[in-house]
Design goal:
The protein is of the alpha/beta class and 285 residues long. It is built from 10 helices and 10 strands. It is globular.
Length: 285
């Protein structure tokens, strides 16, 4: 696992990734996982990672899906996986504690409603044996460790030709003045921008399912989104990668990896069953 520091950027990680690209290695960028651990593991397995290849997760590793706990442990355990903070990591790191679960405040209650209940369930289940005995001390320790890890994740990664971020950027705010409020939450103003956010870099982002981005429709489920606004070198000004795993509509549910080296993509269909029964189980503590 790469140790991540500053909560906006980490220059060591950026230097490592840039060097890997310049050396001809693969940098795979993956959109929102939302707790689908088996799908993430299957997709990463398809990438055939070599020693100096890397995976960058664009945030929202957690919430809604069946096993956010395992997603987080997987992301933390591999030295060639780097994670960016998403708004769901922000909510968890700011609100979750075992003590707080006994009497949730408004922040914790909001997060639980927004998918956090499934995450809490996965953590409790991971530290409860088959007889229903909960290992409370260890559970408390892992929650504290993981929320601290999430809190220190960078909100963006800036390379020579790319910006990697969870949600995007506000076109009305100077790039140097953007905060987590914009980087982790923005939607429409960024999506409909008529000029590049950065004239030299393509913005790779998640957060908003690509089916709802400009120019896409219900026939676009599971497709990567490319902005119609172009950089001078002809590349899209932005590329959306949240091809949406957590829905239960009659439509493709896929997780996408995009290779910064050559623009290729690899997709993994959702592995887990995800229907009304599975959703109830995922949220049943």
């Amino acid at each position: 696992m790469l140790i991540i520091g500053d909560n906006m950027r980490n220059k060591i990680i950026e230097k490592t990734l840039q060097k890997a690209l310049e050396s001809g290695n693969n940098i795979w960028v993956i959109g929102d996982v939302h707790g689908f651990n088996e799908t993430l593991r299957s997709l990463v397995g398809q990438l055939d990672l070599q020693t100096n290849d890397y995976v960058v997760l664009l945030g929202d590793l957690i919430d809604r899906g069946p096993n956010s706990y395992d997603v987080v442990q997987f992301a933390k355990s591999l030295k060639n996986i780097v994670s960016i903070k998403g708004n769901h990591e922000e909510m968890m790191s700011n609100s979750l504690s075992l003590e707080g679960l006994e009497l949730p405040d408004i922040d914790l209650a909001t997060w639980l409603y927004c998918g956090g209940l499934a995450t809490v369930t996965s953590y409790i289940n991971a530290y409860t044996d088959e007889n229903g005995e909960e290992f409370t001390t260890q559970l408390d320790e892992i929650i504290e460790h993981d929320t601290r890890w999430m809190n220190q994740l960078p909100s963006q990664i800036i390379l020579n030709d790319w910006r990697l971020v969870h949600a995007g950027y506000d076109p009305e705010i100077d790039l140097d003045n953007q905060t987590d409020s914009e980087l982790l939450h923005i939607r429409k103003p960024f999506h409909i921008a008529t000029k590049p956010i950065d004239i030299n870099r393509t913005v790779m982002f998640g957060h908003t399912p690509t089916v709802s981005l400009p120019g896409h429709c219900k026939q676009s489920w599971g497709q990567v989104w490319h902005s119609s606004v172009l950089l001078k070198d002809g590349r899209p000004a932005a590329i959306g990668l949240d091809t949406c795993l957590f829905h239960n509509a009659d439509a493709p549910a896929v997780l996408t990896a995009y290779n910064l080296k050559d623009g290729s993509t690899i997709q993994q269909d959702r592995v887990e069953q995800w229907n009304r029964k599975a959703i109830i189980i995922a949220n049943d503590v």
